[in-house]
């Protein structure tokens, strides 16, 4: 039943669109990840000496806040990129498994038909020999 549903030509057109969309999302996540890495490096390199921190504690807090946000963005974009790739691989493996199962079922039916035909011909051959 599912094969009949997924053999509709609309799905193949949508598959092309979603493959392009997938690549676009991957590129976007890579850009966000690289931007987060750049931000973390930028704010991690800022060292505020104690005298400047005592003079303006708001500046130190502001830098720490930006560092926290950049680290958060790094973790979110990295984890999203990782999960997106895992999801894509899982879908690819499931698709290959479904194709393999379909071909296995077709081959099994073909073998059963050949076996039945061979039994029928052997029975006819025995009748003819008698």
UniProtKB/TrEMBL annotation:
Keywords for this protein: Endoplasmic reticulum, ER-Golgi transport, Membrane, Protein transport, Transmembrane, Transmembrane helix, Transport
Record's bilayer topology term: Multi-pass membrane protein
Positions of the BAP29/BAP31 transmembrane domain: 1-106
InterPro entries noted in UniProt: BAP29/BAP31 (IPR008417), BAP29/BAP31_N (IPR040463)
Record Pfam families: Bap31 (PF05529)
Any one biological process term the GO annotation gives: protein localization to endoplasmic reticulum exit site
Transmembrane segments annotated in the record for this chain: 74-91
Domain of life from the UniProt record: Eukaryota
Localization per Swiss-Prot or TrEMBL: Endoplasmic reticulum membrane; Membrane
GO cellular component: endoplasmic reticulum membrane
Function: May play a role in anterograde transport of membrane proteins from the endoplasmic reticulum to the Golgi.
Family membership: Belongs to the BCAP29/BCAP31 family.
Identification of the protein by name: Endoplasmic reticulum transmembrane protein
Lineage: Eukaryota, Metazoa, Chordata, Craniata, Vertebrata
Gene of this entry: Bcap29
